[in-house]
Amino acid sequence: MVTAAHIESIERATLQAVAPEVVDALPGWLLPMDRGTVGRARSAVPLHHGAHDISLLPAILARYAALGFEPCLRLPDLPAFQPWFDALTQRGWRREQPTLTMTGEVQSLLTLPPGSPPAELDSAPDAGWMTMFLGEGLDPTDGASRSRSLSRATGTLFASVREQGQTVACGAASFGHGWLGVHGMRTAAARRGDGLAGRILHAMATEASRRGLAGVFLQVDASNLPAQALYRRAGLTLAWPYAYWRPPLVD
User: Fold this and answer.
1) What is the pLDDT of residues 63-76, one digit of tens each?
2) What is the distance between the alpha carbons of residues 213 and 156, in angstroms, rounded to a whole number?
3) CB-based burial, 178-208: b 16+ in 10 Å, e otherwise
């Protein structure tokens, strides 16, 4: 069961990993602000999934406006937020990017095969990691923004599977607020299905276990069924779904 304490710690750990330019707050909410493309770094998020007074919405929007950032909300797809969905829809806001937050136990990741060679963890992304992360299928502007966000985060480790001098899979691990956070997972298209992502997760879990962390979380696009299948095999389950709510497009 995901408790209110779990939710708050996961959201704080998420912001630690994506390192927004600014993090403001209101009671029950974190208000990260950023000019990049990483949605989690620039969207207000609730710290619990109980009822939140909709009268707080203008104050949230005002905080973003006061600091010169475009507002966005990251809301759980749960009945408690229906008043927020209704209010934002009336304002013409758009619901986008349905995403799943998944959680599990670090110990379950350690059952994945470490592989040969195993993944390596580095304190900074090298050229091979960046090439893999910014490679095929990722918009270059979005990729560059995401890599900047991950690179400026404190304490993040960068995982790579290297074969014959080439990086064929990568990911980033955050360690904070009691959680291992999994981010930025990529595998070369020609190597998908070869268990490389499992090697990445095993290496991250080994380090998390060494640090005494028991829980793991990640966010995965709701349409990415192969990734979800991998994570379920690794023992992760759905904690909650969410989506981004963004203002109307300006012509």
Assistant:
1) 999 999 999 999 99
2) 15
3) ebbbbbbbbbbeeeeeebbbbbbbbbbbbbb
Q: Is the pLDDT of residue 167 over 90?
A: yes
Mean pLDDT of 184-197: 92
Give the E-state strand segments of 106-196 in sequence order: 120-122, 157-163, 166-176, 179-187
Per-residue pLDDT at 116 exceeds 70: yes
Contact indicator for 145, 37 with CB cutoff of 8 Å: yes
Tokens of 142: 């979005």
Contact 11, 23 (CB under 8 A): no
Tokens of 44: 């207000």
Q: How many CB atoms lie within 10 A of CB 50?
A: 10
Spell out the domains of the chain, with CATH numbers in brackets: 4-99+242-246 (no CATH), 104-240 (3.40.630.30)
Kindly give the interhelix angle for 196-210 and 225-233, rounded to the nearest 10 degrees.
50
Contacts of 222 (CB under 8 A, 6+ apart): 98, 99, 100, 241
pTM of the model: 0.93
Q: How far apart are the first and last CA of the chain?
A: 44
Q: Distance between CA 158 and CA 124 in Å, rounded?
A: 6
Task: Let me know: does 134 contact 145? Beta carbons within 8 Å.
Answer: no
Burial group, residue 14, by CB count within 10 angstroms (0-12, 13-18, 19+):
buried
Angstrom distance (rounded) from CA 202 to CA 63: 41
